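Two proteins, back to back. First:
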Amino acid sequence: MLKEGSAAPDFTLMGSDGKEHRLSDFRGREVVLYFYPRDDTPGCTIEAKEFNRSLSDIEKRGAIVIGVSSDGLESHQRFRKKYSLEFLLLSDPVSKVIKLYNAYGDKGIFGMGTLRKTFIIDKKGRISKIFERVRPLGHSGEVLSCLS
């Protein structure tokens, strides 16, 4: 079970930019790592657009935003293009990282799948904040208030 203060597990996933990315590549910067169920669905679109609107404020604090879902790279690329998203989306088609970060579980009537969950990872690679049961509307503001 991951807790605030624990080391963020490292991983490697393919990104919407067509490149492989390791979490450890971002050491030295705060990382907003958010997990979401599906590209281009109502709640996920609200959340992504909010992060996009807040991106310059997040980056002014030296942080970056990375979204993770089980969608494929083509889906991520379409989603980014449709909404002019300026941050990286990572593809986890077998939900390995999603499960590693305890962002997979029972979604009630929707069955098992990716849960909406956000982690702030500090410059040293430790989890400084975990947001459970995220509500998309207003979430980027919550995250921004927790960045150093």
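And the second protein:
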Amino acid sequence: MSDIPARPVLLTGASGALGRVLVPALAAAGWTLRLTDLAPFPDALPPGTSFTRADLADGVAMLRLAEGCGAILHFGGVSVERPFEEIVGPNLRGLYHIYEAARREKARVIFASSNHSVGFHERGTTIDADDPFLPDGYYGLSKAYGELMGRLYWMKHGVESVLIRIGSSLPEPTTARMLASYLSYDDLIRFAIRAVMAETVGVSVVWGASANQAMTWWRADDRGRIGWTPEDSADGFAGRLAGRVSNDPVEERYVGGAFCRIDYTREDPPA
């Protein structure tokens, strides 16, 4: 079975850290990619790619970019915790434009969700992908909204979605927390390929973490539906990172880490 999509794939957030990982890998695999971001693309464009600078808030631009595409890898938007007014445009309204484009083109959406949609779950517990959202800020809230948008468009319009709750995707883990949350770049690339190429996905939620032995927070998900199994691990960094913690009780208590501490005003943690 070919791993080259029959129709072009739109990648939003192409100029971001993860977009710049995906672009060369997917282009090298023979994919036809349409890239977009509000920021200019900083690298040389590989063969088979084109770049259009556009704002997610521009619904007409998103419709035009998605024309003829079979999948949308939606990695665009604000990617850190920010005030609500900075989140609402790109992460809420922009996501609506992506799903409207997907509906018109009958395209599948691969949505870069986040562990911060469940960030206030405690580290001492394990949760499944269908357990309640507990976002740790406006950014995490926008990711929960995005996952619900995916469910709405599946139920109402038959738009398929793969929703990956990315943990910590970096060249290598840098803190003890990442011994659990780390997602290698190669595992991310393999995920993107399977999420686009899987035959039928409905709405699938996948924990975005490599095969880390310290992964005791996240349990059942829908990875089997898309045929993805992570191959890398943070385990080789355990000796160096085991003591690299913040000593902040809020940050160390919850899955979302430092995002939970931002603007945190409770005097006592909830029971």
